[in-house]
Design goal:
Order of helices and strands of chain B: EEHHHEHHHHEHHHHH
Largest interface: A-B, 66 and 66 residues
Radius of gyration of chain A: 29 Å
Distance between the termini of chain B: 34 Å
Strand content of chain A: under 5%
Largest sheet of chain B: 2 strands, antiparallel
Shape of chain A: elongated
Oligomer: heterodimer
Largest sheet of chain A: none
Order of helices and strands of chain A: HHHHHHHHHHHHHH
Chain lengths: 336, 253
């Protein structure tokens, strides 16, 4: 009984002796969480406090496992763990790293799959063309009644669209739709890549069917003229998003690390920067499609120039040539 | 609330214990956030409709530009707030949860964005069904977005720190053992929410254990207010003894 009372007294005395240190840690954590940057001295003192708190927590877990003191120390330890492990804010340097290393490396890793997606889309487009050329009534599966009616009257559905809706609004609605399609193509990769393959194939099929239909009514050149400014990047981005989705699916089917979950997570983190670039490029596509593509004042030559120039920007960003990337290829190959 | 925990290794050698939020807490936070973003978006639309006399249709420029901010509020609420508030949103704060990375540290911007991109999958086929099923069947109670981003939703026990400081303060002026101190403090904290008969019974039982020599008959005769005052006195005085059933081994503290 005396021994037990003495032990209890020791715990209380220990708590009292450590109280000042814990109070100081609480203030320290609050101050560090509030500020964006910490000096070297502040960081070192946080690490020292972290070590001290770990020792106290280990003791508290042993002598008073379910006490409020231990729960409080657990919470404080968790907060200090978060502060000590906080990643530095990158700012401009992080964006430069993203553009010069992360995106080019991911694009390099995806190059085979991008080519495969382009091939799938191309073959689907040919299949769509063949289907509608052979069975013209099938166009009702791929196009709305409004679009069909326009074309049958000898006009593209895009004609006069800027008279109905201002270019700015048209751009925003187009870019929002394109971004959703790209994100969907990426995310659908979770279904073992099959969702992505389906999306790319359907998009290709619709593209081919639409071209075949307008060709039957002598409007193929007009449609080509409409899409040439924004189409190269838009279609490339959809293929890239598809390649990312397939990579995600592949990371689950053929994990590169111990568990499928870790493989999936590592893949998502590695290729997500490319999705960010794709979204930004689609914003540009939306504005081209809203301001340039439907405007008859732009001649064919300027549309082709815009289309090629914008695609070259995509290529230089993806390849890392625009920001003089370090030798990311060696690293990517080594990882593979 | 979920009682599931995850131990994360730390460089100090002392594991960090994370209390995982279950599907219930997660849904609770989401419902609060959904109401907040819906109400803000709806408020914006109503202001646009009544003040600017705008027809809310995407076919008119003014209508579209009124709908656009409401859509941005509704769809970008989670990614923007989670990044700005370091893994929290007002709903998560109210539900007492926050997003952390799997190593227990704060989730980075890219992880939070990936987590939100995958909402598209989690929301399939409707009402976040896939995400909810995933929370029920996965070990760490995570949705697909969390799996992709490497994040966890954990319970954030902010009150624990306050109670630590409170216990510290009480321990410095009382001679009660830690167990006794916490019991008395918790009883006094909950005093008003307990029924009079129940709290009197618990208080008498506690006072007998704190002072085994106390007169049982006199203790039974004490009124509710007096019992409370006695407990308060034990917290603030140096006279009380430790609980006799104290069983912790503190020899190596």
């Amino acid at each position: 009984m005396t021994q037990l009372t003495s032990d209890a007294s020791h715990i209380r005395q220990w708590l009292v002796s450590r109280a000042g240190a814990w109070r100081s840690v609480v203030q320290h954590v609050a101050a560090l969480r509030a500020q964006r940057h910490a000096t070297v001295d502040e960081a070192l003192s946080a690490v020292e406090a972290y070590r001290g708190l770990a020792r106290d927590l280990a003791t508290a877990r042993r002598v008073a496992p379910n006490s409020r003191m231990t729960l409080g120390l657990e919470s404080l330890y968790g907060q200090l763990h978060g502060v000590v492990n906080r990643r530095p804010r990158g700012g401009i340097a992080a964006i430069r790293l993203l553009l010069s290393v992360d995106i080019p490396r991911a694009a390099h890793e995806l190059r085979g799959r991008i080519a495969a997606m382009a091939l799938l889309m191309g073959l689907s487009a040919l299949a769509g063309w063949w289907l509608v050329a052979t069975f013209p009534t099938l166009i009702s599966l791929f196009a709305s009644d409004d679009m069909i009616e326009h074309v049958e009257q000898g006009h593209l559905w895009t004609e006069g669209i800027i008279n109905v809706m201002p270019s700015s609004i048209l751009s925003i609605s187009i870019l929002a739709n394109n971004i959703v399609v790209s994100i969907l193509a990426f995310c659908a990769g979770i279904f073992l890549g099959l969702g992505t393959l389906y999306l790319i194939a359907v998009n290709g099929l619709m593209l081919g069917a639409a071209f075949a239909f307008v060709h039957q009514h002598g409007l193929a050149r007009a449609l080509f003229e409409f899409i040439i400014a924004h189409g190269p990047v838009e279609l490339s981005v959809i293929c890239i998003a598809g390649a990312m989705g397939v990579a995600l699916g592949e990371s689950i089917v053929r994990p590169t690390v111990e568990s499928r979950r870790d493989s999936f997570q590592a893949c998502a983190h590695r290729i997500a920067p490319v999705l960010l670039l794709c979204a930004l490029l689609l914003v540009g596509c939306g504005f081209i499609e809203g301001f340039v593509s439907p405007d008859p004042r732009f001649p064919m030559a300027s549309r082709v120039t815009i289309g090629i120039a914008y695609w070259l920007i995509l290529w230089t960003l993806m390849s890392g040539r625009l920001f003089r990337a370090p030798d990311f290829k060696r690293g990517a190959d080594a990882e593979n | 609330m979920s009682d599931e925990q995850l131990s994360v290794q730390s460089v100090t050698g002392v594991d960090l214990t994370l209390k995982l939020a279950g599907p219930g807490t997660r849904s609770y936070a989401f419902v609060i956030d959904w109401h907040i973003r819906f109400l803000i978006a709806a408020a914006w639309l109503l202001i646009a409709y009544f003040l600017f006399d705008v027809a809310l249709t995407v076919k008119s420029a003014a209508g579209f530009l009124s709908i656009l901010p409401a859509s941005i509020i509704y769809f970008l609420y989670h990614p923007i707030l989670e990044v700005a508030l370091r893994g929290r949103t007002p709903g998560k704060r109210m539900a007492g949860v926050r997003i952390v990375s799997r190593d227990g540290g704060p989730a980075g911007t890219s992880a939070l964005l990936i987590r939100n991109i995958f909402r598209l999958v989690d929301s399939l086929p409707a009402a976040y069904m896939l995400g909810l099923i995933s929370c029920f069947v996965t070990a760490n109670r995570v949705r697909v977005g969390d799996m992709a981003a490497g994040t966890l939703l954990v319970l954030d026990n902010a009150a624990a720190e306050k109670s630590l400081l409170r216990i510290e303060a009480l321990a410095s002026r009382s001679q009660l053992s830690l167990d006794a101190l916490e019991l008395v403090d918790q009883l006094l904290e909950r005093w008003d929410s307990l029924e009079t008969a129940s709290r009197a019974q618990i208080a008498r039982s506690l006072l007998r254990r704190l002072d085994p020599a106390a007169d049982t008959v006199a203790l039974d005769a004490l009124a509710d207010a007096n019992l409370r005052a006695m407990l308060q006195a034990h917290l603030n005085s140096n006279a009380a003894s430790a609980m006799p059933d104290e069983s912790h081994d503190a020899a190596h503290i």
